[in-house]
Design the sequence.
């Protein structure tokens, strides 16, 4: 029986960031604010300083890139000393995920490693306010935190419905100072997530509404960037698309692209959105027998000119993605993405347990993954 939940309070719009003190006050009095190391120099730090002074808060600066377990443990130590009553994550998906992980671990005993490898959270996590400054991950409305164990090269999610942010403050303006490359990669992640959620085995009528909207927003924004539109003109599409995509992903899960993208990203140190975009066309082709009808719906929603039957229209969507990738400099072959042939067995073994892989519309087994890797290398 499909169940659709939408429990995050959404504060959305240009200048929504100024509502943050008010939103913090609704929930608690001692915020631990997590920001990325790139927040310095964007003006965000100054805004935060005054915010924290008024709210008796503390700031934890997350490291660069994916949140690794050592960094999370450092944040947990800070948090257990400070004893916050809520977490605020301001940044990209990694920063918001760090905030969720700290919210989970500060009230629970032990190290993050135990929970990363399966221990259940006994005490309820602290409430989280998520404030995206990069748009694509949808982490502001999802209840998982993607973490990285650098010792075992494992990237997976800490997942608990109670990690869903209590409030998301989504202000397109916060994306204005980000450099173009991370903005584009985040959008490509968002586009991939929208497509995967839309065709997922766990998709339902309500998740489809959000997934389709995410695909349209990201597709339009990325096509606009390719036509030379300045980022500022597509920020609203990116911000709106991210939140819609996050809602869809939380409800419907993802697909095989995300199953394989995690180990590929970790093994070769490649940005998540770039990996997703590079893997996407091959898995869409693989999924055609199971998902052509739904891909055709997206072809129409994006206004892509296509004729013929569902398969023809679905193929037009794959072609649209390949053209987008080519223009954005995304590697068309996985060898160019850095993938090494000798790693195929380990990449496959790391992908197989993924929940994303299991939600793929067409069942994907070990042999399929080897074949897809061979064909697209
Ligand atoms: Fe993703």
Sequence:
């Amino acid at each position: 029986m499909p169940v659709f939940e939408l429990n995050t309070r959404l504060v959305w719009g240009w200048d929504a960031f100024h509502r943050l003190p008010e939103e913090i006050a609704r929930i608690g009095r001692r915020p631990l604010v997590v920001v990325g190391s790139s927040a310095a120099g964007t003006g965000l730090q100054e805004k935060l300083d005054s915010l924290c002074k008024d709210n008796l808060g503390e700031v934890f600066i997350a490291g660069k890139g994916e949140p690794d377990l050592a960094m999370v443990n450092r944040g947990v130590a800070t948090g257990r000393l400070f004893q916050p009553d809520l977490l605020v994550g301001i940044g990209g998906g990694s920063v918001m995920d760090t905030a969720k992980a700290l919210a989970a671990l500060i009230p629970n005993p032990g190290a993050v490693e135990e929970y990363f490898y399966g221990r259940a959270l006994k005490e309820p996590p602290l409430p989280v306010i998520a404030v995206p400054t990069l748009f694509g991950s949808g982490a502001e409305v999802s209840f998982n935190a993607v973490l990285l164990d650098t010792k075992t090269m494992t990237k997976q999610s800490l997942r608990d419905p109670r990690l869903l942010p209590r409030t998301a403050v989504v202000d397109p303006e916060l994306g204005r100072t980000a450099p173009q490359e991370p903005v584009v990669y985040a959008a490509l992640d968002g586009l991939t997530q929208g497509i995967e959620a839309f065709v997922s085995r766990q998709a339902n009528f309500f998740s489809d509404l959000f997934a389709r909207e995410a695909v349209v927003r990201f597709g339009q924004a990325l096509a606009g960037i390719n036509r030379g539109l300045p980022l500022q003109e597509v920020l609203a599409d990116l911000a709106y698309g991210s939140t819609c995509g996050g809602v869809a992903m939380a409800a419907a899960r993802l697909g095989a692209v995300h199953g394989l993208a995690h180990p590929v990203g970790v093994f070769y140190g490649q940005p998540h959105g770039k990996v997703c975009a590079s893997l996407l066309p091959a898995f869409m082709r693989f999924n055609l027998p199971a998902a052509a009808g739904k891909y055709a719906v997206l072809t129409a929603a994006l206004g892509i000119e296509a004729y013929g039957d569902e398969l023809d229209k679905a193929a037009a969507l794959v072609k649209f993605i390949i053209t987008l990738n080519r223009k954005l400099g995304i590697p068309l072959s996985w060898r160019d993405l850095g993938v090494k042939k000798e790693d195929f067995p380990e990449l496959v073994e790391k992908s197989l347990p993924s929940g994303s892989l299991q939600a793929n519309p067409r069942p994907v087994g070990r042999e399929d993954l080897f074949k897809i890797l061979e064909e697209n290398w």
Q: What stands out?
A: The chain has two domains: 9-174, 179-376. The chain is about 50% helix and 10% strand. The beta strands are 9-12, 31-36, 58-62, 86-91, 128-132, 144-149, 154-159, 167-170.
